[in-house]
Amino acid sequence: MVFRLVLGCGTVCRQVTERLSEHDGDRLLAITDDESVVETLRDESVPARSADPADPDAIANVDPPDVIFVGSDRTDTNRAALEAARERFPEASIVAYLGGNATAADRDRFDALADAVVDPSSVMADRVLDGAASASAEAAIELREHLAGIDGRLAVLAHDNPDPDAIASAVALVAVAESVGVDADACYFGEISHQENRAMVNLLGLNLRNLDRDQPISEYAAFALVDHSRPGVNDQLPSDLHVDIVIDHHPPRGPVPGEFVDLRQGAGATSTVLTEYIERFDLDFDSAIATALLYGIRVDTNDFTREVSPADFRAASRLWPHVDTSLLRQIEQPSLEGDTLETIARAIKNRVQRESVAVASVGRISDRDALPQAADQLLAMEGVDTTLVFGFNDEMVYLSARSRAADVDLGETLRDAFDRIGSAGGHADMAGAQLEIGILGSADDEEEVESIVSVVEEVITNRFFEAIETRPGVPVGAYTQTSEWLFTQRGEPEDGESA
User: Fold this and answer.
1) What is the tens place of the pLDDT at every residue in 355-411?
2) What pLDDT, on the 0 to 100 scale, is given for residue 338?
3) What positions does the domain RCK N-terminal occupy (predicted)?
């Protein structure tokens, strides 16, 4: 039996720990000062202790391990942990992660004490991902050629009401375009209403242009789409628009136009792809853009726990030395506005629960970004593993769903339930939909409106429950006539929750 000791558990180390825990019969212990990580590991049946991995007292009473992995995100923490571990366990084999802020002295110390050093900036990292690296190098050459051929100004379009991944990807592609002499604007339609998203834009001083649907776009000679892949689908561009560049990580739900198309469905975020392009174009990482890209990756991968890939870890490691951590903390902890708190409260109060599935209508909403926050809050309730929260704005119904159930694919579930009466899509654990209520605008008085809303609430709730109960892939047939009468036009799904 092999005893493996993990000291510190940062972004890279989490995946290593999960792999180590799969060795049946072997012994594993993780020591980290992040209590949330300790709880997560224990939930996954991985033995873990809450302690400072750099404190010699933390390992004073630990049995001698065969292998030690030092894996905090911080170079100084890893160096101190490495020194303590080598002194306490001189016979153990030690693999140490260098971290993102290593000096020459740090590198010398790691080389002297560790049997193997994992360096995020070394050539070895490229070798590990050799196939992907070669593909990304070829894509960078092709992207440079397409950018160089643009004669005029480039519009880089995020999807409507953009999330952090879309915002970061747009400003990063603008920087890449400008590096080859192409003038470009990061653009979007709709609103940036989520508190964290607004904080990201304002605190980092990101330059974005908010387009109006009626505003002519003829001033642009070329168009790029990031974090979505089809014009007119989750943006307000003409559906027949000639698209020059498409960079996305969502699986497409139809033909993808574009002279240059890079769809990295294996990546957890489009920001990961743009990080690679900045590297391939040999550009310096601007602190604001690096911070935005890292935040985009963290949000789309739910802090490296959802649909994450080795490329996401590598991108995060590359970005970390250039990130403004103080601003990142401010972005991640904005104050909740009153309307958002009220929406969350209504979701909790109005929820309809069947076994572990909870559905809630929050009625009229002014901020659609409050819906995913409400869905997250319901998911945190005891006995709930799948949630759907929806609300009404003008003649639209917006839906946001979350799940941690292993046997639920929310993207497919929402498509089964609502694609015939609206537009839906997303990931297995996070999805959304938009439905247009054509009849609502013709209602004569408030009483009639409330009656229609009540019927719509019942239709949405029952269709979702039926889609959950008949998974996987069984078409939903109930309420079809009522649905087709109420929902007469197709909307588009919320991105970050859509394909």
Assistant:
1) 999 999 999 888 788 898 899 899 989 999 999 999 998 788 999 999 988 888 888
2) 72
3) 5-97
Cβ atoms of 72 and 8 within 8 Å: the answer is yes
| Strand ordering across the sheet containing 3-7 | 48-50, 27-32, 3-7, 67-70, 93-97, 116-118
Given the DSSP bridges, would you call strands 357-364 and 386-393 parallel, antiparallel or unpaired? parallel
Beta strands of 71-183 (E only): which ranges? 93-97, 116-118, 154-157
| Secondary structure of 196-228 as H, E, C letters | HHHHHHHHHCCCCEEECCCCCCCCCCEEEEECC
Q: In 346-362, which positions are buried (b, 16+ CB within 10 angstroms) versus exposed (e)?
A: bbbeebbeeeebbbbbb
**Residue written as token pair 């998203």:** 197
Query: Is pLDDT at 431 greater than 90 in this prediction?
Result: no
Class of domain 3-119: alpha beta
pTM: 0.57
Euclidean distance between CA atoms 384 and 324, whole angstroms: 36
Tens of pLDDT, residues 203-220? 999 999 999 888 889 999
CATH number of 338-490: 3.10.310.40
- Cβ partners under 8 Å of residue 8, min gap 6: 31, 32, 53, 54, 70, 71, 72, 73, 74, 77, 78, 81
Q: Which of 360, 427, 369 shows the shortest CA–CA distance to 393?
A: 369
Residue 470, pLDDT score: 79
Tokens of 125: 């990292």
CATH of range 130-332; options 3.40.50.300, 3.90.1640.10, 2.60.120.10, 3.30.420.10: 3.90.1640.10
Average pLDDT of the residues of the chain: 84
Q: Contacts by 106-115 with C-beta closer than 8 Å and gap 24+?
A: 106/75, 106/79, 109/79, 109/82, 109/83, 110/78, 110/79, 110/82, 113/82, 113/83, 113/86, 114/70, 114/82, 114/86
Domain borders along the chain are 3-119, 130-332, 338-490
Residues 17, 9 contacting (CB under 8 angstroms): yes
List Cα–Cα distances, 258 to 173, 225, 244, 248, 425, in angstroms.
16, 9, 5, 12, 22
pLDDT at 224 over 60: yes
Q: How far apart are CA 175 and CA 425, in angstroms?
A: 30
Give Cα separations from 402 to 234, 259, 380, 428 (angstroms): 20, 35, 10, 9
